[in-house]
Amino acid sequence: MCGNTLGVPVGVTAVSGDVTAVPGGAVEIRPARPDDEEGIRRFLGGLSPRTQARRFFAGMGRPSAGFVRTLLAVNERRDALLAVHGNLLVGHAMSYRGEETDVEIAVVVGDEWQGMGLGSRLVRTLMRRAESRGARTVGMDVLGDNREVLSMVRRAWPEATMRVSSGTVEVTAKVLR
């Protein structure tokens, strides 16, 4: 999923224990921490150009330190979650306060981990955390050719508004309950 997100103060709504079994072990969803910088760099570097473009709307080289810190920021305006398999980061989700919606979200799952429901779990966890801070509406931008994510959005938010603009689909919906 592509887009943006809301901020949740550090320590709010812990997600410990949110673990799902997958082939080869379990994946835990947990809040991002400042010491995750190297893990997020490795994760981003391991994404295929297609996955990078679907999440960031462009390919990327080595991410800057500032960019990495932004992806990991958890404060009153931003939230960030990681999907972790042992010591391996396999997914990232973030939210921040939106302009036209209460929260904007963005999610990416590593190529070999896609199709296992991790993106949906990351979104549901972000939405629970955002709702606990008062968010009622969510927005996201999805590339028009990202059929998998658009299908997930239709299942999760059947009444979402979708507007096509310059090759992207701008999605607006009520926060999941």
TrEMBL record:
Domain N-acetyltransferase as annotated: residue spans: 27-177
InterPro entries: Acyl_CoA_acyltransferase, GNAT_dom
SUPFAM superfamilies: Acyl-CoA N-acyltransferases (Nat)
Matches recorded under PROSITE patterns: GNAT
This protein's name: N-acetyltransferase domain-containing protein
CDD domains named among the record's database cross-references: NAT_SF
Taxonomic lineage from the root: Bacteria, Bacillati, Actinomycetota, Actinomycetes, Streptosporangiales
Pfam family, any one: Acetyltransf_1
